[in-house]
Design the sequence.
């Protein structure tokens, strides 16, 4: 049985892989993780999908175990600001889309919504977020959901097993470096060997398979399976094995970022429990609230803005609190390795692929890849069918998210400069134009979004199209013949539930502080 794994890289991808494999296979797997003491990790990656809870559950971890160690907070949505026009904002929440007479409530909203805010009329969470509240009460109970989070069938699910069963109401924000440190401790306590050294050479045998990695001071590290978690450099998969990298740059031009970690008195500031994406002249700025600081950064395209201008804009956006904070300039490699599993090497994390973090998908990619690799762990025959199925699944996830992000830019109403005008004419992936044409008269559904699993449900597409405001959407004609009473009752029920929650839930900061 193959059971010797060498992971190169100790960022989020490396330690997520090591910890998950130890949880999955225990002492039956031998893991060595080597990371450079000279090459830093990318140091960002602080907002997630709600599905990440399956990762922590699989490791046997409860929120009280890991959140305080990572200064973590809840993320109830992404808030998009100024994508339609200055001053406008809308939410993409973690909340199931309600349906009336077989039509999504947003279709009824298009026909005759109560207000001009689809998000606040069709969902409860936007108002909870605006009020800066926690979705859990001080005793830890979650606002009532159409499922019992404590039920046996909800425990220890993998993301794949859970797909589409329920929509959990929140995701997380956490400090990337603290999460890596927490998972490193978890991993080493369970027997992962940690080597701090630079891999200087990757040895290949005559088949082109990796026989070992040579380090500066700890000799050769050998194994059966090598996991490339070396980030954008793709040291094993792209450099040693020369697996081509397929760029998405022609459809997603943002190739750079500048990040700041801004210390903040969050008790005084208050916590808006969401990630905010504020559109700018040549990209967008993220704001992520953590306990003790805010993570923020400008994602932009160098074809339209210089790093110096980006830094000036970000510092101006943040204000005086950013004055003494060191900037982290990052070049982003946008796209994916043609295959992430080649011979006996699997790339996970930035080495496998990446799109700009507009919907916080980098860690979702890692989590999905780890689950798929654990499920398809190779046997002595190195069955090529397993490898091919793995590469198909991982490729579809990244291609699908790429398409979802293109829809954000294509449907954004903003066209007030060349950057934003170019988002309407830039090349788009095959199939998107046809899908967007369909959505003008029928909101996205499971038949008309990207056809393979990529982590996003149809309602996520609805939120983007309705929020961005650049596409003229029409309600289904059938609604004109239908009785609107039930839809009106649903809108009223949402309004009443929103009013009850905003009166009773605790402030987000108050809830997180008691977790510490
Ligand atoms: C600007 C930006 C914002 C992001 N925001 C989000 C977000 O909000 N949500 C999200 O989910 N994702 C986000 N991501 C993605 C997220 O940061 C990454 O998915 C995550 O950090 C994983 O990175 P990694 O471990 O693959 O690579 P890295 O963090 O770059 O780690 C690479 C590791 O390889 C090691 N290494 C490199 N070369 C060698 C060598 N020769 N020998 C030994 N070790 C070596 C390094 O020491 C390091 O430990 C963001 C990414 C960027 C660029
Ligand atoms: N897999 C889903 C994806 C999802 C559903 N709603 C949202 C909202 C935001 Cl901001 C990101 C992702 C998703 C999940 O993780 O809940």
Sequence:
């Amino acid at each position: 049985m193959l059971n010797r794994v060498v992971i190169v890289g100790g960022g989020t991808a490396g330690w997520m892989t090591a910890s998950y494999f130890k949880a999955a296979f225990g002492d039956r797997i031998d893991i060595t993780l080597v990371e450079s003491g000279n090459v830093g990790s990318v140091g960002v990656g602080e907002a997630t999908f709600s599905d990440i809870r399956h990762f922590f559950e699989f490791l046997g971890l409860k929120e009280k175990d890991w959140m305080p160690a990572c200064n973590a907070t809840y993320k109830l949505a992404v808030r998009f600001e100024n994508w339609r026009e200055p001053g406008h904002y809308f939410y993409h929440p973690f909340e199931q889309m309600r349906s009336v007479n077989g039509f999504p409530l947003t279709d009824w909203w298009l026909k005759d919504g109560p207000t001009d805010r689809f998000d606040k009329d069709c969902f409860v969470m936007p108002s909870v977020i605006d009020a800066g509240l926690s979705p859990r009460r001080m005793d830890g109970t979650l606002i009532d959901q159409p499922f019992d989070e404590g039920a046996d069938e909800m425990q220890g699910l993998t993301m794949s097993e859970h797909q589409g069963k329920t929509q959990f109401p929140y995701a997380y924000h956490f400090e990337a470096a603290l999460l890596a440190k927490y998972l490193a401790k978890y991993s080493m306590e369970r027997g992962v060997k940690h080597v701090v050294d630079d891999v200087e050479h990757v040895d290949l045998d005559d088949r082109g398979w990796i026989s070992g990695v040579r380090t500066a001071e700890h000799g050769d590290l050998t194994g059966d399976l090598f996991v490339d978690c070396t980030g954008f450099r793709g040291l094993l998969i792209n450099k040693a094995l020369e697996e081509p990298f397929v760029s998405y740059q022609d459809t997603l031009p943002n190739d750079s970022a500048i990040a700041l970690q801004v210390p903040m008195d969050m008790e005084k500031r208050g916590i808006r429990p969401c990630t905010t994406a504020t559109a700018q002249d040549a990209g967008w700025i993220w704001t992520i609230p953590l306990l003790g600081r805010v993570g923020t950064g400008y994602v932009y395209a160098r074809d339209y803005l210089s790093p110096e201008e980006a830094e000036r804009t970000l510092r101006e956006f943040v204000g005086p609190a950013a004055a003494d904070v060191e900037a982290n300039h990052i070049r982003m490699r946008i796209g994916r390795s043609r295959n992430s599993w080649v011979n006996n090497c699997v790339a996970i994390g930035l080495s496998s692929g990446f799109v700009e973090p507009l919907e916080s998908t980098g860690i979702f990619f890692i989590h999905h890849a780890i689950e798929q690799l654990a499920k398809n762990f190779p046997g002595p025959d190195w069955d090529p069918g397993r490898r091919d199925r793995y590469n198909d699944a991982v490729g579809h996830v990244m291609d699908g998210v790429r398409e979802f992000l293109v829809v954000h830019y294509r449907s954004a109403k903003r066209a007030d400069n060349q950057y934003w005008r170019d988002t309407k004419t830039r090349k788009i992936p095959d199939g998107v134009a046809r899908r967007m044409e369909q959505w003008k008269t029928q909101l996205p559904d499971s038949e008309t979004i990207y056809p393979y699993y990529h982590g996003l449900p149809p309602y996520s597409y609805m939120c983007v199209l309705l929020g961005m405001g650049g596409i003229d959407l029409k309600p289904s004609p059938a609604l004109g013949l239908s009785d609107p009473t039930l839809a009106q009752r649903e809108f009223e029920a949402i309004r009443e539930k929103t009013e009850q929650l905003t009166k009773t839930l605790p402030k987000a900061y108050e809830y997180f502080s008691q977790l510490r």
